[in-house]
Amino acid sequence: MSYTNPDPEPERTTGLEQGGGVPPGETPPAESSMSEAGPWEGNNPPKGWAKAPLAVILALVALVAAGFLGYALVLIL
């Protein structure tokens, strides 16, 4: 099994300045300059939780809290 170094040799790599820097014209374009680079996100909800699931969760939390309060009152009395 032979191992090859994936790093290029600086003396054979084009576009490198002295000390290993890269001139501005040699860099690839930034992510924001590429139009439609990512997947289409049309199915994502526009914001936050829907009202119905949030209401169900809050009702369950209220029932559990009422149960604990009732249990505590039974233990005290």
Task: Give your account of this protein's structure.
- The chain has 77 residues and is mainly alpha-helical.
- This is DUF6480 family protein.
- It comes from Streptomyces marokkonensis.
- Keywords: Membrane, Transmembrane, Transmembrane helix.
Strand content: under 5%
Largest sheet: none
Can you count the beta strands?
Answer: 0
Q: How far apart, in Å, are the first and last alpha carbons?
A: 78 Å
The helical percent reads: 25-40%
Radius of gyration: 31 Å
Described by the principal axes of the CA atoms, the overall outline is elongated
Mean pLDDT: 76
Tally of helical runs = 1
Class inferred from helices and paired strands: mainly alpha
Q: Strand-and-helix sequence, N→C?
A: H
Spans where pLDDT lies below 50 across 5 or more residues: none
Transmembrane segments: 54-76
Keywords: Membrane, Transmembrane, Transmembrane helix
Protein name: DUF6480 family protein
InterPro entries: DUF6480
Keywords summarizing the entry:
77 residues, mainly alpha, 0% strand, elongated, DUF6480, DUF6480 family protein, membrane
Write the layout of secondary structure elements.
Elements: H1 51-76
Summarize the structure.
With 77 residues, this protein is mainly alpha-helical. It has 1 helix and no strands.
